[in-house]
Each structure stands twice: as C-alpha cells, then as structure tokens.
Amino acid sequence: MTGRLLLMIAVLAILYGCGQGSFLPEQPEKQGDVGRAKTGTPEAADQQATTQEMPRQAVGNTQSAPAKPNYVFILLDDMRKDDLKYMPKTRALLAQRGMSFDNAYVSNALCCPSRATIMRGQYSHNSGVWTTHNSLIGGLAAYKSKGYEQDNVATRLQAAGYRTALIGKYLNDYKGTSVPPGWNDWFAMFGQKYFDYDVNDNGTMRHYGTKDSDYRTDVLRRETLAFIDNSAAGGTPFFAYVAPNAPHFPATPAPRDEHTYDGAKSPRLASFDEADVSDKPPWIQWLPRLSTYQIAHIDNLHEKRIETLQAADDLVEGVVNKLNNAGVMSNTYVFFTSDNGWHHGEHRIPREKWRPYEEDVHMPLLVRGPGVAADSTTAKLALNTDFFPTFTTLGSIPTPNYVDGRSLGPVIKGTSTAWRSAILLEAAHRRSYDKRPVPGYYGIRTTDGRKYLEYASGHRELYNLKTDPYELLNNFNTTPPSGLAPRLQALKICAGDTCQQAEDGQ
Q1: CB 34: neighbour CB atoms within 10 A?
Q2: 494 is catalytic
Q3: Residues 427, 440: contact at Cβ < 8 Å?
Q4: Contact 497, 402 (CB under 8 A)
Q5: Helix (H) or strand (E) holding 362
Q6: Active-site residue among 18, 111, 112, 494?
Q7: What is the DSSP letter of 466?
Q8: How far is CA 188 from CA 124, 171, 223, 271, 501, in A?
Q9: Which of 65, 296, 299, 425 could form a disulfide with 443, with the two C-beta atoms 3.0–4.6 Å apart?
Q10: Whole-angstrom Cα distance, residue 231 to residue 225?
Q11: pLDDT digits (tens, 9 = 90+) for 281-339
C-alpha cells in the first residue's frame, strides 16, 4: 500500500504544472531506451557502481602513468559571470595564469540540480534531480534515493587512489551526522548563514558562532589549506571540492570587507527594467516596471554580494599560495566556477535564478594547471556535465558510461579539434519570486549564438546572442528556428555518449 501511495504522489508531482504544461517540460518518449545506447571500449564494471553500464576507457592509459594530478574545485553559490570583475586576486592568480572560458554554462540553473550534475556528470533529465528542496525529484532526497551517493565523481576518484574532501555546501536539505561514501574528509555546512551555523566535521557536529574568526568563508579557507597540507605531505593525489556559499543571500560580508563597495550599483544592462516585454512570455509580461524601492533593494543586495566575494577572493589566494608552498602547484588543477547565476532586474526580474536567460545560465569558469597556457581564453562551449569526465580523464581513470559530459582536457591544453556545437538548457516548473507559476522548459544554445526555448505551456523564445546579447528581441514569431527544433528534440532524450552526438549535431 505504501509503495502504491508513493507512486501516486510521484505521478501527481510530475503532472502538476502551469497552464497547459506539466511539472517537467514535455519529454519525447524513448523507444526501447535507444537514447541510452552506449559506445566505447568495454571494461569491468566498478563494483561500487549503482548501474551495470560499462565505463568509457580513459585516454592515454597504455603505458606506466605519470603521477596523477591533484584537483581543487572551487564552486561558488549564485555568482554571476560579471561578478568576477570584483575578484582581483582570483583574476590575477587563475585567469592571468590559466584559461578563462567565455562560454561556460550550467544546464539547470538551480543550486541542487546543478550540483547533482557536477557530482554525476548528467543532465537533469538523466539524473532525475530537477528541483532544490527534498521531493521525489529534488534536493538530497532525490539524489540519495537513486543511489548516487554510492557512485559519483568522489567515489570514482577515491577508488582510483585519490584522497577526497568536501568542504562547504553539499546538497540542499542535507543535515545530520551522516557522511556519504567516497569522502576521506567531510566538512559539510548547513544552511546559508555566514555566522552562527553548524558543521558536520567527519560525523561530529560543531557549532561556529559570531566571532570574526567564525566567518564561514574564512573557516572553509582554513579547512581547505589544512587538507592540502596533509595531502601533499602524504604524497597522495587529492581532490578538494570547496563550496563556499558566497555570494548567496543573505550575502553577509566578512567584517573586514564591510563598506568595501559602499554605494555600488548593480549592473545596468540593456535588459535592466526592460521597457518593452511584449514579445516575452506572459509570466514576463505580467511583471511591472521596477519601482524605486525595488531598484534600491537590488543595488543594496548587489553591494553586499560583491563585498561577500572578497573573502572568497582571499580563499583563492590562500589556496594558490598553499599549493606553491607545499610544492604541488605544478601538478594541480584549480577550477573556479559557480552553480548558477542571479537576476538583478534584467527583464524586470528583481531577484531570482532558474530562468533560461544569460544572467542565470552563463557562468564564470577559470582553470589553472599543468599544460594550461597562461592568460588564455576559449570560446568553446563548456557545461557543468564536463567536470566529472575532466577529472577522470586527466587522472587516467575510466569514465562511467552514464556520464553525459566530455573532458575539458583537450580544451585547456589547447589540443581540441572537433567540439560540441550546442548544449541543452532545461528546468522544471517553478513558482517565481512573486509566487506565480512558471512552466518548465527545454532550450538549446549553439556556438553561433542562437538560443531557442520551448516551454511546457507551448510558448517559445528565439534569440540571436551575437546581435542581441541581452535577449531583448524574441524572434520566434518572425524567424523560424531553422534546424534548432529537431536538435533540441535529440538533446531532450540523450544519455551518455548520445548526448555528445546530439551536442555535436550528429
């Protein structure tokens, strides 16, 4: 009886939607699971894997392998791409000493789905983690119920000899003293407060109060540097997943950084308080022009956010200095990115993420490490599905076939030739900041700058980002989405290797 009740709840959750749409964007029916067909060299399945799929063989693993590289993966929370200009140390130590990605994206611009994608290398339509809070399709509950804590980037790296650490935010609604498998060091924080919060320190609950030294990002910095120190001393390759909550609301700056940007105003992009939204879907047309009060609030939050980023800037500086002092910088990759962006009044949206617009899906991404040319840039499309296979491939570790992404190794080393020409954007139905329902969507973004969006309600948007970077003119009613609609259909049902084929237009 309990199982039947859970099934009924799941069906209702998926069917409940907005207007004509469903909770999730309408997804084409898979025929015989053709979308999950795999290619590649057969290898023995990992005993800890939760699926029976065979792993893709790692590249360059035929001779005695060199020392495996270390990874420090720094993941900020709700940071926009244009916020990077307020982090001078990060730009100097990572961008100027490594590679900047001009076109890095997240597929589902919400905290938990994005982080689940990083852990599993899967689009949301394959991971099944669509929303933020605990439910059958969201939060830690969805992630855990599918067995993902037993098989993810951490378990794979640990099984290959890596010393692993999660330091900071894990997944939404995580709490308690449990420590998932795959992590040698576990320092997971609860909630979003920057002072007066709890931490699960390897199974022991610790409370941090209101002293300056308890400031959340600074505590993470100290824990990260200690982990690097201990790992380097032991000569073991390491993977540090470092996840501050900056600049997420309430965006409390460290005391030393208060007033650093007094009076700073949020970006005034051409789409800020957009004058004419008649070409936009109804949930944008409903929004009034921003009031003086709303604009003041947007500016105030922006000031707090960028002041909050200063401690994260110090964290990056501390990591690089520690890697140098420990003598491991030459064999360590440092990745810096965010889980999703944030709206500061663009298209009249005063505050929010999740939307398919550039402010939410377009991410900062910097990489420094061995073989990465200093002060280099790339225009190639990168996605948060790519981090998992990048870490395994650079470490000469087989990548499981359930992974949808591809290794960024050839891009950061300047050896890539053919590359994806499109990525998928997707999200479930959600209530916006004003409690109005907004339907789920699927979208495609291509290398030539086109973005085509299909909502579950039947509404459509089409933009040319080359000529209209702020998405002011929806061309759908005047310009058919030539070639984009069928490519989007293929991306909706892709899985594993077929995602690479769909992204490549095959």
Answers
A1: 10
A2: no
A3: yes
A4: no
A5: strand 362-363
A6: 111
A7: T
A8: 23, 9, 11, 37, 37
A9: 425
A10: 10
A11: 999 999 999 999 999 999 999 999 999 999 999 999 999 999 999 999 999 999 999 99
